[in-house]
Backbone:
């Protein structure tokens, strides 16, 4: 019951702020900034490990954003495939003899920086394998601009995503240390030349369940948490940061997944301990499209990794929980994540065992169990519906009635098997953490052309 109260409180905050998001999305003259010298310059950091299938189209997409001054830094993290070769061949890059690499943050040794003056805003770093966090740190050491943006190599930004985010940053640049963008599932969409030309929902079961999850997490959750400056994560797929503060907290933490959550927790801690005014914001109109896992094996591996990262972050920062020194983070965000995220699977299991015990000991009736289950289902389903309403108020991307019905169907279906698998995956992730399993897990990519061909035939 407590978790439902918190869920709906956060959802209510999201509804309270959705009209601001709507006005900003529809009426903001962000396009006028695209040619302005006042817009801060940004370094886009793109960690890439075995991304030869998607990297070229993604880089070409990033090089055509509606933004006045930025650079794209691709970090090849010791790929075992031809990621580096396809990049150097496609853009005719050559190795720089004396690249201006600063040593602001420790990272695995860089073996080369590649560049072509014909593409003045593109750099490629080659380095030994050290993981995503290590790659981002290497990118920071090369970056030339005061803002950095982390972007997954399998993601596509909408052309105006970065300028929308910069517009929100420019509202309060002195206090804004990070901004998260919205991440949406690209499976099922028609993609041409690095752009989503026709939005459609995934036609496979696993990506559809993830589409529901993303909608709930980003619109139903992050709008609300950011409104009280309690956001604990900016998705690694797309976020914007002030470089000076990222360097001040020691950069990204390597060795474990969950680097996107860890950097935000470190920024909260640093700003609060130094009594600096700050905000960590969310910009849902800045959209990044990503490929979601389409197989059970890859999805399970991803969620187990998320479970390991969440548990590690909660253990590392347990001292912030219930500590008024850390304000909203200490009194609300951290306790919520420890109790209702990290420990939630065990509450579910013990609750289920208790119910089974009550039935076996004839201490309750099946009607009570039915009512209990129905209340649990309806509360979760209403949260999914609330997120869908938020989407329709502000963005209206579901223009087909069939898409709305599909979302409603899968929003209900996820409680009959998929949610239980989520609990299992999180526990498996915790077991892996206790066994010091830090592996990233494989993610099979499809080229965006293959995705588009699949969408056309669907």
Residues:
């Amino acid at each position: 019951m407590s978790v439902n109260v918190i869920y709906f409180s956060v959802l209510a905050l999201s509804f309270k702020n959705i009209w601001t998001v709507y006005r900003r999305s529809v009426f903001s003259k962000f396009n006028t900034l695209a040619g302005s010298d006042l817009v801060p310059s940004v370094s886009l950091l793109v960690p890439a490990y075995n991304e030869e299938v998607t990297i070229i189209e993604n880089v070409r997409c990033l090089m055509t954003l509606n933004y006045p001054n930025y650079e794209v830094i691709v970090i090849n993290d010791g790929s075992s495939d031809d990621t580096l070769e396809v990049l150097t061949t496609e853009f005719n890059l050559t190795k720089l003899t004396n690249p201006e690499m600063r040593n602001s943050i420790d990272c695995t040794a860089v073996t080369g920086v590649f560049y072509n003056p014909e593409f003045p805003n593109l750099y490629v770093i080659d380095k030994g394998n050290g993981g995503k966090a290590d790659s981002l740190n290497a990118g920071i050491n090369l970056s030339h601009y005061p803002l950095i943006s982390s972007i997954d190599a399998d993601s596509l930004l909408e052309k105006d995503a970065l300028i929308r985010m910069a517009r929100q940053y420019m509202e309060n640049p002195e206090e804004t240390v990070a901004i998260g963008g919205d991440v949406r599932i690209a499976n099922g969409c028609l993609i041409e030349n690095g752009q989503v030309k026709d939005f459609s929902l995934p036609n496979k079961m696993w990506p559809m369940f993830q589409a529901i999850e993303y909608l709930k997490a980003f619109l139903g959750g992050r709008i609300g948490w950011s409104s009280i400056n309690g956001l604990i994560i900016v998705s690694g797929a797309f976020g914007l940061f002030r470089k000076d503060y990222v360097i001040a907290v020691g950069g990204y933490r390597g060795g474990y997944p969950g680097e996107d959550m860890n950097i935000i927790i470190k920024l909260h801690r640093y700003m609060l301990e130094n009594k600096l005014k700050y905000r960590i914001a969310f910009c849902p109109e800045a959209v990044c499209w990503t490929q979601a896992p389409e197989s059970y094996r890859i999805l399970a591996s991803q969620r187990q990794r998320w479970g390991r990262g969440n548990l590690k972050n909660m253990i590392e920062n347990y001292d912030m929980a219930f500590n008024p020194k850390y304000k909203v983070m200490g009194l609300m965000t951290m306790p919520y994540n420890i109790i209702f995220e990290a420990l939630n699977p065990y509450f579910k299991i013990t609750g289920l065992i208790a119910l089974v015990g009550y039935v076996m000991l004839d201490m309750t009736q099946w009607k009570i169990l039915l009512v209990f289950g129905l209340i649990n289902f309806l509360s979760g389903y209403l949260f999914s519906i609330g997120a869908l309403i938020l989407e329709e108020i502000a963005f209206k991307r579901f223009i087909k009635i069939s898409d709305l019905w599909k979302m409603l169907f899968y929003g209900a279906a996820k409680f009959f098997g998929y949610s239980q698998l989520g609990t299992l995956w999180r526990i498996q992730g915790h077991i892996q953490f206790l066994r010091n399993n830090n592996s990233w897990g494989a993610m099979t990519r499809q080229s965006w052309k293959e995705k588009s061909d699949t969408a056309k035939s669907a």
The first strand starts at residue 42 and ends at 48.
